[in-house]
Amino acid sequence: MALLRRCLVIFLAFLAASLAASIVIAIGVSIVVLITQGSQLEAGLVGAAAGTVPVMVPFVAITALLPTVIVVTFAEVRRSRSFWFYLIGGVAIAIVSLLEFAFFIFLAGLVKGPYRPINASTLIFLIAGVAAGLVYWALAGRDAGRWREQPRT
User: Where are the domains of the chain?
Assistant: First the structure.
């Protein structure tokens, strides 16, 4: 029963972390658009950014699923509850997700010429990974491996 409860907590924390990463990506892309277009903040841009979040959450969750399973399994087995572990894990997962994203862009033929992933999107993905890692740590990571401990009597 404890394992089933833990799996539910992990799944819900993963969804919350995906939501946090999606919000950071939407805000980051909005900032990049504002900087590159030189326009003032408009209500339409804010609305468009907010509207992309529900669409982005499944995308973020799918691209981050496999690396997250690896990191979370490692954390549960090793009982890693460190804030820094999840911060670095979130960044590592963001790097893998960015590489997946770049690969899919390459396969789709959306980029003419060489694709340079070291740009504003790299920074946005890394900040999103930090946010996701911290949200996951706050909801589930602080109790990693506790389900295996014997209750005190």
Answer: 2-147
